[in-house]
């Protein structure tokens, strides 16, 4: 899966939900950290949509313990034929252990999405740019999910998304929280390559997400 154009990923903890996502999604984000036995689930997967594998660590909003097994599982997932991309946190790469997952992705011709999350705020423009550039340095796609508290926060993120896209870089951005919700529909207009949405709103994996059907409609209407 290349991310040359926008990819709408249905965020799911149970790969069986792919059947419900297929109509509106381009891919599924398999939240391995929310699944009971993620590698067995991948072995059993017989869906059509390509899988973006995420094993989100607890200090970055997920439920996976920060141990070797987490990164190993991500490396194993990268080798799975259905897995077209893996998500690795920039902070895990900086800590050292995340590099193995990027390397595993490269070996398997999978895309490495390197991500940064800020659950508190939207940092100033220079800091946003620094984070996204670092993420791009290690990954094929640099991803930045911040928390917006105002429209100004969203504008800053959109302006950066636009600038990076104009410069030819592959980035994915979104502002979490209520104030950032519209960014999920609008950021793709400015070049963001990935959107995330739960099939059922009750299964949201981040604050402010639209459900899948709604986000597909909004992105299509705006695009
Ligand atoms: O990193 C991201 C983005 C996200 O946090 C969001 O804001 O939509 C949702 C997560 O499932 C995904 O791994």
UniProtKB/TrEMBL annotation:
Specify the enzyme's EC class, one word: lyase
User: Looking at the Swiss-Prot or TrEMBL record, what is one Pfam family this protein matches?
Assistant: DHquinase_I
Write the Enzyme Commission number(s) for this entry. Answer: 4.2.1.10
Q: Name one GO molecular function term.
A: 3-dehydroquinate dehydratase activity
Q: Give the reaction(s) catalysed.
A: 3-dehydroquinate = 3-dehydroshikimate + H2O
Sorted keywords for this record are: Amino-acid biosynthesis, Aromatic amino acid biosynthesis, Lyase, Schiff base
Active-site residues per Swiss-Prot or TrEMBL entry? 117 (proton donor/acceptor), 143 (schiff-base intermediate with substrate)
Question: Which pathway is it part of?
Answer: Metabolic intermediate biosynthesis; chorismate biosynthesis; chorismate from D-erythrose 4-phosphate and phosphoenolpyruvate: step 3/7
Q: A GO BP term, please?
A: chorismate biosynthetic process
Its transmembrane ranges are none
- Give me the residues that bind 3-dehydroquinate, please: 29-31, 56, 184, 205, 209
* Family assignment from sequence similarity: Belongs to the type-I 3-dehydroquinase family.
Protein purpose: Involved in the third step of the chorismate pathway, which leads to the biosynthesis of aromatic amino acids. Catalyzes the cis-dehydration of 3-dehydroquinate (DHQ) and introduces the first double bond of the aromatic ring to yield 3-dehydroshikimate.
Q: How does it assemble?
A: Homodimer.
Could you tell me what this protein is called?
Answer: 3-dehydroquinate dehydratase
Q: What organism does the UniProt record list as the source? A: Halomarina ordinaria
């Amino acid at each position: 899966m290349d991310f040359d154009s926008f990819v709408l990923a249905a965020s799911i903890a149970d790969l069986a939900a792919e059947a419900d996502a297929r109509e509106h999604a381009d891919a599924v984000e398999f939240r391995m950290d929310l699944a009971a036995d993620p590698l067995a689930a991948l072995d059993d997967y017989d869906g059509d949509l390509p899988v973006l594998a995420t094993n989100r660590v607890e200090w970055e909003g997920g439920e996976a313990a920060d141990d070797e097994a987490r990164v190993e599982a991500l490396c194993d997932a990268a080798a799975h034929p259905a897995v077209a991309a893996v998500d690795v946190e920039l902070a895990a790469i900086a800590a050292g252990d995340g590099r193995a997952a990027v390397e595993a992705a490269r070996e398997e011709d999978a895309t490495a999405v390197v991500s940064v999350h800020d659950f508190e705020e939207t940092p100033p423009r220079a800091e946003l740019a620094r984070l996204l550039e670092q993420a791009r340095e290690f990954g094929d796609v640099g991803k930045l999910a911040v928390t917006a508290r105002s429209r100004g926060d969203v504008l800053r993120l959109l302006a950066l998304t636009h600038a990076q896209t104009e410069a030819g870089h592959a980035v994915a951005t979104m502002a979490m929280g209520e104030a950032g919700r519209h960014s999920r529909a609008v950021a793709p207009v400015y070049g963001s390559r990935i959107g995330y949405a739960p099939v059922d709103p009750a299964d949201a994996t981040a604050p402010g997400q639209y459900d899948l059907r709604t986000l597909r409609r909004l992105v299509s209407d705006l695009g």
